[in-house]
Amino acid sequence: MSTQPNVLAKATDLPNVGLGAQATFYRNPNSLIPYYGGANHQGWQIFMRFRPLPMNH
Known about the structure:
By secondary structure, the chain is mainly β. The chain is 7% helix and 42% strand.
């Protein structure tokens, strides 16, 4: 008789979750500094992605 270990959840039963980040750095030409308030700019974001489990039909 074989026994299976106690497992809370299999990998296929867990939702797909991902973490990520993005950064952007850029420079404006001198002719645009009066309109954008500077020459050097940056932007960033951090995100988390959730994908639901496949539905069983």
